[in-house]
Every structure is written in structure tokens, then in C-alpha cells.
Amino acid sequence: MLTGTHSEAASYEFTTLTCIPGIIHYNDTKIQLLDLPGIIEGASEGKGRGRQVISVAKSSDLVLMILDASKSEGHRQILTKELEAVGLRLNKRPPQIYFKRKKTGGISFNSMIPLTHVDEKLCYQILHEYKIHNAEVLFREDATVDDLIDVIEGNRKYIKCVYVYNKIDVVGIDDVDKLARQPNSLVISCNLQLNLDRLLARMWEEMGLVRVYTKPQGQQPDFTDPVVLSTDRGGCTVEDFCDHIHRNLLKDVKYVLVWGTSARHYPQHCGLLHVLQDEDVVQIVKKKETDEGGRGRFKSHTNAPARISDREKKAPLKT
């Protein structure tokens, strides 16, 4: 419904058998949407080719979990549990724990706040289980044992997830109201095309995409084809913007002029660390290339020797 791509749909479950890609054109940007086959209980152990399906979700920016509004709430717990089992953490942020392996010196354990879930002895036991005997651990928040294990493993992926309840046209208004009020949830109906515009707006909001328009010197800005940046992928600074255009552009940049909400006045001279915001206009000013002997009437370099005594003597005039 969102991309205009044909994906097999029927009244029975597990109709989609392979990954079907489609492109959403929204706010002058292209967002790729992948329709994945349904996963079953035990998918994290490989049942029903579950691991291949989940591995595609690991590389995405946002997971849309499509659920049936007429079925029980247990489906949501099963799917979340399967994704947690393969290292996907939905709607969580990385724990504030500093962990660094060392070659010598034993285990150094510190915390900035009182801990209620983990103590020093338990931390030592967990590290010894992983055969780590020299490390530095600093807790910046009251984290749990699971959070500590996630940091030690280091291969966890923290992804935003929106729970989308489809088929709201077959349940009562009270059930729809209850589902819509749950955190990170949205209700839609593909059959009657209800609330699809809100779904697109929510996707845009969750992904945090930043559109930056380019402006050539002495010309109008190009508002047709923006450069799309994201905080989760690369970053939103001027340096990331230049890298996005061409990797060799950075060494030629003198400064940039920025118009938009991130600028204090129009235009603002900015450096490479300036953070851009949505719908900013950027003009890059490059360094001038100077030739060996300078340019124009006033040469900056001369080939003549510095001292008078080193100058070439002219031949005496003939009389």
C-alpha cells in the first residue's frame, strides 16, 4: 500500500515467502521498505529460516512490527523475545557502562552512582565466566546484569521499533483506542486505507532523517534533490555532509555558508563540526588554487634571488 509494489497477500498466514523490497517517496527522499516473511517461535534458533529473516532486520534503521489487531497480545511478546535472542534490542538505548580490556593490572571496578542490581563480586564472576581477568569497568547508571553482559559481548544492535496493529476495521472502537494508547504503537487498516499517512509521519519522525539542500555560488538553491543525513548512520555535521558528496572534498573546503534553523543569522560562516538540521541550505566555499608564480599583475612569488650579490651580472655596455 505504501510503495505500490506487489506483495502476495491472502487470508491465510505466512503468505510472504521471501524478502520483497519497495521504495517509499516521502518528503523528497527515498526510503526503502522491505517486506519480510513472518517469523515463528524458535526463529532465533533457525526454525522456518528465521535467522536469515532476522539478519535483514539487523541492518535496518527502523523495524515495523505488523501485528493483527484481532489476535491476542501474546504475538507481540513472542516476536520481541525472538529478536532479543539474536541480539536486537528494541526501543532501548545502549547502557551507560564504560568497559575496556587491558593486558595487565587486574580488574578495576568503579561506579558513579549507588548500584542496586550489580555489585563488585558479581561483576568479577561475570568477567571470569568470559575469561576476562584484566579490564576496566565504570558504571554511569544503575544498570542490570543483562546490560553488563550486552556491553561485554559488544555485538548488540539497538533499533527503534514501531508496533503497527493492522485490521482495525474488524475490531471494536474500544479495542482500537486501547491499542493506540500503548507505547510505540500505531493502528492502521490496509483494507480501508486508514491512518497510513500517520504511519509515514511516524516513520519519518523515528528515523530522524535530515534533508540538506545544496546551493552553488551565485545561483539559487537546488530544492529538488536533497542530501539525506541521519544521526544513526554517519552523523549530521558539515563534515559528514562533505563526505556524502565526495570523500576528497574535505581537504578543499575553506568554510561553508549555512541558511536554515541551525544558523544563528543568514548566512552563517561555519566550520566542519557545525551540526545541520532538517531543510538547511549549505554552500561550500573551496580554497583558491594558487599557481607556482602567483596570478595577475601582482605576483606573490618571484624567481629572483633574495640577495643582491647573488643576482646575475649584466654584461657591460659596449662603447
Present the secondary structure layout.
Elements lengths: L19 E7 L2 E7 L14 H9 L3 E7 L5 H12 L2 E3 L6 E5 L5 E5 L8 H10 L5 E5 L5 H9 L3 E10 L6 H8 L4 E3 L8 H12 L1 E6 L7 E9 L7 H8 L7 E7 L8 E3 L9 E7 L33
Parallel strand pairs: 3-8, 4-8, 6-7, 8-9, 10-14
Antiparallel strand pairs: 1-2, 5-7, 10-11, 12-13, 12-14
Walk me through this protein's architecture.
This protein has 319 residues and is α/β, with parallel strands linked by helices. 21% of the residues lie in helices and 26% in strands.
Q: How far apart are the termini?
A: 100 Å
Using the alpha-carbon principal axes, give the shape.
extended
Oligomer: single chain
What structural category do the secondary elements indicate?
Answer: alpha/beta
Output the strand order for the largest sheet. 11-10-14-12-13
What characteristics describe this protein?
319 residues, alpha/beta, 7 helices, extended
